[in-house]
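dumping the sequnces here before i forget
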Amino acid sequence: MKIVRFRHAGRDRYGALEGDRVTPLDGTIEALTPAVGGSPVALKDVRLLAPAVPSKIVAIGLNYADHAAEGNRELPKEPMLFIKPSTAVIGPDDEIVYPPQTANLHHEGELAIVIGKAARNVSPADARRYVLGYTCANDVTARDLQRRDVQFTRGKGFDTFAPLGPWIVTGLDPSDLALETRVNGEVRQKSRTSQLIFNCDYLVSFISQVMTLLPGDVISTGTPAGVGPMKVGDVVEVEIEQIGCLKNTIAAPR
Ligand code: MG
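..and the predicted 3d for all of it:
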């Protein structure tokens, strides 16, 4: 099943996407139900929003060996966590704003886990019971600021630095999906989620032993090799097998 959030007739709500039609859903992300009297709307008539409204995005640094190598970093012995603020989230087709403070804006295409049920001290074997589904993420990074600050809050925390979407796919096995990032159609990153050092179930468990994961929270699982610069006007796409393609454009600061 594909779960979207969409804007139609001045209202933002969840929906189920089947083919090119969106059926409205009621309730919260924890418990979505078919909307009473909700008639399907054509996908072309709605604006898709980020499919989740996270209280936090927990992102993983250096979770692909080839990306650690391109940054001359040693392989981590345990997941390296950082937080992207909820205010950075944008949806499919929204603009990533190039901040004036950076001269080196990078894409990082990543598989994202969307939490469906509050998770605290969950084992890897139980992790999927707490996962609603999976979507595409771009962990947009001001590489120069990330290096200058040592930690990642500024370099990865600007408004618009967390595109998510286009939808959440449920019932998916995330363990071996092809992932590709393109800029203006040129392939920059190409890997498979089987190359993750710490897999999705392990990450849910590991993070839940540190902080409670709330429904709608997002775990961005890390990026493979091939990160690189984007400039104003570029179109960046993160495409993951069995999920879809998240497309955004880089815009000058307003
Ligand atoms: Mg990343």
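The chain has two domains: 2-49, 57-251.
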